Each structure stands twice: as structure tokens, then as C-alpha cells.
Amino acid sequence: MQFLKLSIFTLFYCLSFSSCTSDDTPPTEASSNVAAEVFKDISYGTHAQQKYDLYLPEGRNTQKTKVLVLVHGGGWTEGDKTDMDGYVTLLQESHPDHAIVNINYVLAAPPSTPAFPNQFLDLQKVIRKLSEEKETLQIKDDFGLIGVSAGAHISLMYDYVYDINDQVKFVCDIVGPTNFNDPFYTENPNFEILLNFLTDAAAYPENTDLATAVSPALQVSQRSSPSILFYGDQDPLVPLSNGTFLANALSESNVTHNFTVYEGGHGNWDLTSLTDLQFQLKQFINLHLPISN
User: Fold this and answer.
1) How many alpha carbons fall within 13 Å on the CB side of residue 139?
2) Fold topology of 2-288
3) Looking at the chain, which terminus has fewer C-beta neighbours within 10 angstroms, N or C?
4) What residues contact residue 172 under an 8 Å CB cut-off, 6+ apart?
5) Where is the BD-FAE-like domain (predicted)?
6) What pLDDT is recorded for position 111?
7) Phi/psi at 116 (nearest 5 deg)?
8) Mean per-residue pLDDT for 95-104?
């Protein structure tokens, strides 16, 4: 996913944050005039990779300060939350009143450490922890998920399957795999081996069709959150057909969505396309996770 990260950084530049700390302990008290704060590497589990960075805006409170959650890519086996730092910069500029969470999850190391459903459950743990601490943090437990590649897949799966309390209000899917029954995957002679390595079959009922169970486009329902999709028409890793299939599934279930196709591959799009992505995402956040002053 290195080229995707580099493409994003051609659009977004790094900022210096006026308030930052490496402390991993959130504040224990809140006041009506709270300052902006940044907390790095907050643990949400016992595994070393179960950490997230938390960016809290100035003047936040439990009535208005909703949360944007970033989920990195890397083929479920690689990647790091630092890959999403460009998005943090973008969101702090365009949505200064939102809290931002940039997460790591336990990377798969087949066959000993599978990805599914563990990585969906890691995202669940993050959201539960933030919800439990909302009074202390002075945030509202309404969330928007922004995922890239494997991170988009994780985000879509969480919303479409695991978000039983409807805390997620939208999902942004940037080049995420959505349908593992697509011939692009099934015609790969190693597909079954890879699927079995990535999936903990014991976590699913006996005789479950695993490809279907971990395909978010096959889990869409009327309860699915509004979704905004971005794909490339020459993507060698995630076929455009996956984006089209998801868009059609959302249409059939009358779920609000936007679907945009850019010229290029797995996120390595030109500056015009990346600028358009930024604009569309900003509008989508304003519509589905608005801040009321």
C-alpha cells in the first residue's frame, strides 16, 4: 500500500500540532473550556498492536463532539496507523470540531493469527472503549469510519454486521475488497488456501461459506449505514467489480451511498481525483456526522 500512502501525501502536508503528548492515559476530568489534546498509543487490549491515537478538539463536549475513526490498509497482514497520518491532517483542517481516532489492529500472521473475525472485533473493542469513556473524554459516541483497502473492508464489515447499536453513522470505503465470491478472487488457484489462512473458521458456525461471511457486500441490509465508495478503474489488487457490486447491493437495500470511479489503480490517482475525494468526503461527513454548535 506504499503507493497509496505516497499519493495521499501529494495532497496533504504535515502540520505541527500545538498540543501533543506521548502519554497513553486520557484525561480523567473534563471542563467546559477543554483544550485540544493528542494522546498516542492508547491501549485497548493486551496485544502490543491493540493501540490507537486520539485527537481531541478544543471546546468539545458530550453533546456535539462526534468521532471519526481511521482504519489503515495493508492486506490484513501489514500496515500501521502512521499510514493514515495524512488523513488526520486533512480531517483536522476540514473538521476541526470532530474527535479523530487512528487505530492499529492485530495484524494477521497465518496460520497462527487469523484476520477474520479478529480485526472486526478489534474495531469493536475500540468503539466500545471510546463509548465507555465518553464522559471522561467529553465526546459523543456517534462514529464515522474511514478505511483504506483492507481497512475499508474491516470498516464495512463492522458496520454491516457488528454495529448492532447503530453507533456508526457512515462508512467511507477507499478501494476496499467487498465480495470474495468475485471471479477475480475465486479464479486465483491459491484463493481457498489464503481464505482459510486469513479466517478463523472456528469462530463461525459449522459449514459456513467463509467467502460469503467475510464479504461486506453480501452482508448489506436496510440497517447498513450511508456509505461513500471510491475505486480505481485499473486496480490490480481490488477489482472495480467489487465497488460496483457493493454499490448495487446498497441500491437494492435503499441505503444512501455515493460511488465514484477514478482513472488509475489502487489509490494512485492524480491530484484532481484526490482533490475530488477530499471534497466529497468532507460533504459526506457534514451530511451524516454533522457537528451542531
Assistant:
1) 29
2) Rossmann fold (3.40.50)
3) C
4) 144, 145, 146, 147, 152, 155, 227, 228, 230, 281, 284
5) 53-250
6) 86
7) -110, 135
8) 98
